[in-house]
Write a structure and sequence with these properties.
Blueprint: H1 2-23, E1 34-46, E2 59-69, E3 74-88, H2 95-100, E4 103-118, E5 131-145, E6 152-166, E7 171-182, E8 206-217
Antiparallel strand pairs: 1-2, 1-8, 2-3, 3-4, 4-5, 5-6, 6-7, 7-8
């Protein structure tokens, strides 16, 4: 019990650290190279119940993002996303799952930091550099909430790809499809029956997030040409 309490306390400290990093410098939100926005889309689970099927039982999610643009090619993005995941053995026709008959539904809160690399130079207020595909990768923390594992947390690796473009001088939009690798089985709660031989059976859960975002660019008017630049 003491070990479990210590483990939970360590998770709590790490979670607080992430929150502090996310909000530690309020002045950064008004920087000329920063933009803030909202995200909306869907999430789905992959694990013991659903090993290979993409877009299985998609559930809505939403969140907020902040991006700091170092240059036209590289950015650092922070986000917080709230969503849900679910699965049911009875959705699949194989005899094993029909006999097992397990199901789950859980919600989650994800906090993460990702680097973004733009394939094309991308800048606000520029007609020439107004769109780009990009790839992203980073680290985050996932808080899982359900009736049996309230407050369960875990480290995740995130990676994905997307496309973003300028809507106007201040507003941009885009879409992204990204994946999360977890290091536990906290999503579906199905225990690994072969823990002593993980080479042949590895059940760390995954989930994916697909959606669109809209961001607003903070611009310093005194430093910019008033026209939408070519």
């Amino acid at each position: 019990m003491e070990n479990g309490a210590l483990h939970s306390y360590s998770h709590l400290k790490f979670s607080i650290l992430i929150l502090l990093l996310f909000f530690i410098s309020p002045e950064i939100w008004s920087q000329r190279n920063g933009d803030i926005g909202i995200f909306g889309g869907t999430s789905y689970y992959m694990g013991e119940i659903n090993p290979v099927l993409h877009f299985y039982k998609p559930s809505p999610d939403f969140g907020a993002i902040y991006r700091y643009n170092f240059n036209p090619r590289n950015s650092l993005r922070f986000h917080a996303i709230y969503g849900s995941l679910r699965g049911n053995d009875l959705d699949f026709t194989n005899d094993f799952q029909q006999t097992r008959g397990l199901n789950f539904q859980t919600s989650f809160l994800e906090l993460a930091a990702n680097t973004e690399f733009n394939f094309f130079p991308y800048q606000y207020g520029k007609r020439k550099d107004r769109y780009t595909p990009y790839v992203s990768a980073g680290l985050g923390y996932n808080f899982v909430f359900d009736s049996e594992k309230r407050g369960t947390t875990g480290l995740i690796i995130t990676y994905g790809a997307g496309f973003k473009f300028n809507v106007s001088r201040h507003i941009s939009a885009g879409f992204e499809w990204s994946f999360r690798k977890t290091f536990n089985d906290n999503l579906d709660g199905i225990a690994n029956p072969y823990q002593d031989n993980p080479v042949f059976y590895h059940n760390n859960d995954w989930y994916s997030v697909v959606g669109i975002f809209i961001t607003y660019k903070f611009l310093t008017y005194l430093l910019e040409c008033p026209a939408y630049e070519e």
